[in-house]
Predict the 3D structure of the following.
Amino acid sequence: MAAYLARRVAYAVLTFFGITIVTFTLIHSVPGDPVTFYIGKSGTHGVPPQIVAAIKHEYHLDEPVPKQYLWWLRGIFTLDFGPSVIDHRPAMDRILEVLPNTIALNVIAFALSALLGIPIGLWSASRSGHLFERGSSVIFFLLYSLPSFWVAILLMQFFAVRHQWLPLFGMTSDDYLLMSTAHRIADRIQHMVLPSLALTYAQLAFYARFTKSALTEVIHQDFITTARAKGVSVHAVMWKHALRNALLPLVTLLGLTIPYLLSGSVIIETMFQWDGVGKLYFQSLASRDYPTVLALTVVTAVVTLFASVVSDVLYALADPRVRVEGKR
Amino acid sequence: MKREESNSWRDVWRRFRRSTIAMIALVYVTFVAIVALFAPMIASSKPLILRTPAGIQFPSAHDLLGTKEGIEQLAQGRVVIGAPVPHSPVVVDFAHRLDAPTPLHHFGTDDVGRDVLARLVHGARVSLTVAILAAAIALIVGSFFGAIAGFYGGWIDWIVSRLIEMVLCFPFLFLVLAIVALFGPSMYTIIIALGATTWTNEARYVRGEIMRIRELEFAHAARASGASDVRIIFRHLLPNALAPALVSTNFAVAAAVLTESSLSFLGLGVPLPAPTWGGMLSLAEMYIDSAWWLVLYPGIAIFATVAAFNVVGDRFREALDPRG
């Protein structure tokens, strides 16, 4: 086990450097830099060279590229990605400020979609091939194909515009500061309903499909046939034998869903004006705020990498076959 | 060997055909593809067939390779057959702003009086071009990396696996948005961004399949008869390892249509004046309560296309592996 762990961590370290190099190269091969952002697209002529030099110095742009990379790499370890070009505050502060909003939204969406999606997947796997299940799987597939931003528009149209039951967008009402505590909580919850519904919708299909395919794989194995042959009921086989074995890949999947969740957040948060990392990322891209873009990209990739190492190790602990096979 | 392979493809087709829903989806996919291919002839302000003193002309057919809508002068003559949708997707008409569906504009008009149906037809062209080319890049790149990783194993496999792991760590939309936003939105950057981020699925499938079949008899036979590595991989192994990757390509096209429309919706899609389904929806967001046709039709167009590709992919997979 120790050998497996060591190998997995060593691989992850190499992948980590790969991630940083890719991100750094991508951002530096792009036309335009913070200097042009400050001074304008018209170019640097007419601007005192000291100012250009000062800006360049602040972002280490006056140094050779490998050295810039090392500066930036050091920043990853100290979580210091430099000041944002928008308001000059540390990029990391801006991210940490909006992170709880994204987490709140995603936790709700995750809980709702897992609670609904996993039983749906279980149900459809247990009836695989039946007429009713085939029909429902088609409906399911159709739902999976709906663009999330369209669903969001329809939700907005129905709940916020036509019936005005819920606020259209934003995180709080305009008169939020004048409200009593109880009203503030109610106001916050009201603003959360539509964006979390829109996110749930997108993830629900994902979990249900994954549960179904993980279960279908298990169901075709011999021990399930044996259990059924012994006379165990379908219900008991599904919940006790199959689900337990399918749960493992399901749990390990969670690490890899982080990037998926954040992708979804970009569109939904931008649409609902929800101050989360997805919206921040989109705005930072639009304003070429490199420090924030780089920080967000690298932090999410590293968190994902970490989560996938943890889940791989957990998997290996639970399923010795993985460790043995990995050795070869 | 040759005969058996063609037989197995015939079996797959036979099983695929049994599913009604799969056939409906396939017909729809073909329909959208034809609409996309012939969009300039289907929705155009120019007639399909024009009789002039100089002889019969096909004015709208000239636009098939690139629309020059509104610039050129039309020859005088009698219209024999007009375009099925007799409107340009780009010409504005303020007299018919935000018209609800009428016999003149069956799907209504947008905020500057452009015909919604004409824009949908031309939007199919943009969406499918982007999606199919992106999926093709993903298939080619993915097959290449998957094939060499699966065939050689060892350090090559190790490097490819790290590469895949790396790409999967990034939030997909973060990378695509970054490439498109930073290099400037155009059809090419979108195609490259999508291809560069989605090849991992195909690579994994091909790698697995090649590993499974590389020790089979026909592979050894090819080697014994003196075939080079390149020949064994691309001539003997890859054609037999492609099926799962082809299934995945169907899903990749569906996903690319969704992503392309999301990008257009966010304002980072194929730039104006090209009509895109996502761009139409982002406009619709402003007329959410007054012009339902702007919300409904582009949404249905995206949904139906994505669903059709997904269903074809799903039933194709079932036809390949009847057990699973």
User: Anything to note?
Assistant: The radius of gyration of chain B is 23 Å. The interface with chain A takes residues 21, 162-163, 165-166, 168-175, 177-179, 181-183, 254, 258, 261-262, 265-266, 278, 281, 284-285, 288-289, 295, 299, 302-303, 306-307, 310-311, 314, 323-324 of chain B (CB under 8 Å). Chain B has a mean pLDDT of 82. The beta strands of chain B are 49-52, 55-57, 78-81.
